[in-house]
């Protein structure tokens, strides 16, 4: 039995979606969507689907979603968020602007639409966990320039942040990110060098780490928080571990902290609502369940 046959067997004729990745075993998406399915008493299924990073494998995924009547769509994570885009029937404007898709929705006519809910999830978690923060609070420093950074930067620009400061270990990637998202209204995007990352915290209202530094199995993020105002918020989108070194250091000096689990939970809401037709909210109980699934 291959992975597609196994997923169909698990669904047992019920409507289903899945997380698609390579590898996929580490994903916690089944825990968060499974919580909503149980909470809403929906007779549905959310599983895992390992798909190799090859165009032919992604073409097979698209064909499977289209031909399987009870398939509702999928989530995508590394390494498929960009490569899937040319194979879909349409890309919504937000995903097109970000340049990546994390959610595929099968529409009533059987076509597939690519969406990106990462920016939505990022902002929803920020507003919930750091309610004192607003776009008008001041400059934001974003570390990293990958796919997650693109969603974060797009959402912050749209929210009205007056100044973005971008820093990446490869400076040219930060330059390219800044060029791609420079707002037309004259608001500033400042690109700094990696060795300037601590200095660029001066006067910032928010620090966001979108790099893998601090993640389990990765080197720690080396940054001096001394220039960061105490009232600033610190957001690390890493969620394994939940309390990264960055967040522990920020919490110790009194900064409001936001971990990556909230973003994971909130980005799942729009996809679930599209697949299963029920409005849902992120709750303390759901966070506890998913954190337990992480072993946190």
Q: Which range does the strand content fall in?
A: 15-25%
From the alpha carbons, calculate the radius of gyration and give it in angstroms: 19 Å
Number of DSSP helices? 10
CATH homologous superfamily label of the largest domain: Leucine Dehydrogenase, chain A, domain 1
CATH topology of the largest domain: Rossmann fold
Q: Can you tell me the number of structural domains?
A: 2
User: How would you sum up the global shape?
Assistant: globular
- What is the oligomer described by this structure? single chain
The helicity comes to 25-40%
The side-by-side strand order for the widest beta sheet comes to: 2-1-3-5-6-4
Mean pLDDT score: 96
Overall CATH class of the largest domain: Alpha Beta
Biggest pleated sheet? 6 strands, mixed
Structural class, judged by helices and strands? Answer: alpha/beta
Uncertain stretches of 5 or more adjacent residues: none
Distance between the first and last residues' Cα: 33 Å
Order of helices and strands: HEHEHEEHEEHEHEHEEEHEHH
Give the tally of β-strands.
Answer: 12
The CATH architecture classification of the largest domain is 3-Layer(aba) Sandwich
Description of the molecule:
There is one protein chain. This protein has 296 residues and is α/β, with parallel strands linked by helices. The protein folds into 2 domains: 3-116 and 268-294, Leucine Dehydrogenase, chain A, domain 1 (Rossmann fold), CATH 3.40.50; 119-258, 3-Layer(aba) Sandwich (Rossmann fold). The chain has helices spanning 3-11, 29-39, 55-67, 93-98, 118-129, 147-159, 171-181, 245-252, 260-276, 284-294, and strands at 16-21, 45-50, 71-76, 90-91, 103-106, 112-115, 140-143, 163-167, 188-192, 206-209, 233-236, 256-258. The strands form 2 sheets. A 6-stranded mixed β-sheet has the order 2-1-3-5-6-4, with helices on both faces. α2 runs antiparallel to α10 and α5 (118-129) crosses α6. The longest helix is centred in the last third of the chain and has 17 residues, at 260-276. The model has no long low-confidence stretch (mean pLDDT 96).
